[in-house]
Amino acid sequence: MLAVVAPSFAVDPARLDAGCRVLEAAGFRLCQRDDLTQADGYLAGSDERRAAELDAWVRDPDVDGILCARGGYGVARILHRLDADAFARARK
């Protein structure tokens, strides 16, 4: 299963849905948090929300990989909140 995350810029729900449909049609199973399209200004929610989202999926044994719905500067704001060792162990 692949987790779709938004660690940076806010995600447009219509574009997210379109991308997820393409991936699902290709045979991928996807999961995401209910608050994935939350916005806090130009970011996909608060720094706390975005860090917690990544942390949860990294630690979830049912998730094989993580896909970022958007990139951007916002992820640099949460790097200090993430456990690098957990990412290395998870190899996602």
Give the arrangement of secondary structure elements.
Layout (H helix, E strand, L loop, with lengths): L1 E4 L7 H13 L4 E2 L15 H13 L5 E4 L15 H7 L2
Q: What's this model, at a glance?
A:
The chain contains three helices and three strands, in the order βαβαβα. The protein is of the alpha/beta class and 92 residues long.
- Series of H and E elements: EHEHEH
Tell me, rounded to a whole number, the average pLDDT.
Answer: 95
**Hey, roughly how much beta strand do the residues contain?**
5-15%
Give the strand order of the largest sheet, numbering strands 1, 2, ... along the chain.
Answer: 2-1-3
| C-alpha termini separation | 11 Å
Structural class: alpha/beta
State the helix count: 3
Helix share bin: 25-40%
Low-confidence stretches: none
Kindly state the number of beta strands: 3
- What general outline do the C-alpha atoms trace? flat
Using only CA atoms, what is the Rg? Answer: 13 Å
Major sheet summary line: 3 strands, parallel
Question: How does this structure look, described?
Answer:
The relative contact order is 0.26. The mean pLDDT is 95. The chain is 36% helix and 11% strand. The protein is of the alpha/beta class and 92 residues long. Strands 2-1-3 form a three-stranded parallel beta sheet. The chain is built from three helices and three strands.
Summary keywords:
single chain; 92 residues; alpha/beta; three-stranded parallel beta sheet; flat
